[in-house]
Specification:
- The protein is an alpha/beta fold.
- It has a single domain, classed as TIM Barrel, CATH 3.20.20.
- About 50% of the residues lie in helices and about 15% in strands.
- The chain contains 17 helices and eight strands.
- An eight-stranded parallel beta sheet has the order 1-2-3-4-5-6-7-8.
- α9 links the parallel β4 and β5.
- α4 packs parallel to α6, α8 packs parallel to α9 and α16 packs antiparallel against α17.
- The longest helix is centred in the N-terminal third of the chain and has 17 residues.
- It is globular and about 50 Å long.
- It starts with a strand and ends with a helix.
- The chain binds zinc ion (ZN).
- Its cofactor is Zn(2+).
- It is an enzyme of class 3 (hydrolase).
- Catalyzes the hydrolytic deamination of adenine to hypoxanthine. Plays an important role in the purine salvage pathway and in nitrogen catabolism.
- Belongs to the metallo-dependent hydrolases superfamily. Adenosine and AMP deaminases family. Adenine deaminase type 2 subfamily.
- It catalyses: adenine + H2O + H(+) = hypoxanthine + NH4(+).
Length: about 325
């Protein structure tokens, strides 16, 4: 059994495997421009961010009903459970669905059909984080937050994703203030492609408690010092970084240097159907490519629970942490 871990950076739309895409397309009468699952799997070998995003949004067309979103989440949970995930804080992108006529309620209720019973069905506790698309307007983000108010008992926090450069965190100051007033937790993608200054802005202007990616903090020693001092968790996604060419090869990934610097790093899968692996695959990949030893792997697993939004259930966090300490890597 793989080491127990929490997954904190996972876009549910990015877990759509070719087989499920075809099954949902058939169910909903959606025509996909691929002959079969092999042809679609071939298209998953994209070369850059834009070709990834094109495919990502194209395939979302197969997600129409509550049952579709439930099936998507169940398929992810089954794979995650097999890779040692015990707790998952799952992103979804409401605007990507409402823009094509699928109601926010359909998305949330559908996902909840799977997440609401995930402990019984998959042995995974779950929380839902609603992300705003940063290449859409600040007004659209605010409208999305208002539309989500009836569902806030099912949403633990808000995040910010999609194309980073040119869309600094400060653009979303107002919606993050509104989210905080509603008692929602706050995270944001920052410092993946965008500069270290975006990380600082996400902390100072948006009040984020966790930074998604945050890789480029390493270019700013003062920022690294601050992230260490304030124990701000970073949700790294090594296989995603390689596929989107944020780093050249896995062997060049700054994870070891980040751990050496004292940063609270976690390892996650981002969009696993597209980037070549789920949470456990990412652990295995960094273990091999970076030669991480047992203590580093245990630290990463421990960090994932430390960084989780489990403040409402510290007993559970303690139980997960005890499992990590007891885990035998041999
Ligand atoms: Zn992401």
């Amino acid at each position: 059994m793989p080491v127990p871990k929490a997954e904190l950076h996972l876009h549910i739309e990015g877990t759509l495997e070719p087989e499920l895409a075809f099954a949902l397309a058939a169910r909903n009468g959606v025509e996909l421009p691929y002959a079969d699952t092999d042809a679609l799997r071939h298209a998953y070998r994209f070369e850059d961010l834009q070709s990834f995003l094109n495919l990502y949004y194209e395939l979302m067309a197969v997600l129409r009903t509550e049952a579709d979103f439930a099936d998507l989440a169940d398929a992810y949970l089954a794979r995650a459970a097999a890779q040692g995930v015990r707790h998952a804080e799952i992103f979804f992108d409401p605007q990507a669905h409402t823009a094509r006529g699928v109601a926010l309620g359909t998305v949330v209720e559908g996902l909840w059909r799977a997440l609401g019973r995930s402990e019984e069905t998959h042995g995974i506790s779950t929380q839902l984080i609603m992300c705003f698309l940063r290449d859409e307007s600040a007004e659209s983000a605010l409208e999305t937050l208002r539309a989500a108010e009836p569902y806030l008992d099912r949403i633990v926090g808000v995040g910010l994703d999609s194309a980073e450069v040119g869309h600094p965190p400060a653009k979303f100051r107002e919606v993050y203030e509104a989210a905080a007033a509603l008692g929602l937790r706050r995270v944001a993608h920052a410092g993946e492609e965008g500069p270290p200054a975006y990380i600082t802005e996400a902390l100072d202007v948006l009040g984020v408690e966790r930074v998604d990616h945050g890789l480029r903090c390493m270019e700013d020693p003062a920022l690294v010092e601050r992230l260490v001092r304030e124990r701000v968790p970073l949700t790294l996604c090594p296989l995603s970084n390689v596929r989107l060419r944020t780093v050249g090869t896995l062997a060049e990934h700054p994870l070891p240097a980040m751990l050496d610097a004292g940063l609270l790093c976690t390892v996650n899968s981002d969009d696993p159907a597209y980037f070549g692996g789920y949470a456990g695959d990412n652990f295995d990949a960094v273990r091999e490519a970076l030669g991480l030893g047992e203590e580093r792997l245990r630290e990463l697993a421990r960090n994932s629970f430390v960084a989780s939004f489990l403040e409402h259930d510290e007993e559970r966090r303690a139980r997960y942490l005890a499992e990590v300490e007891a885990y035998d890597f041999r």
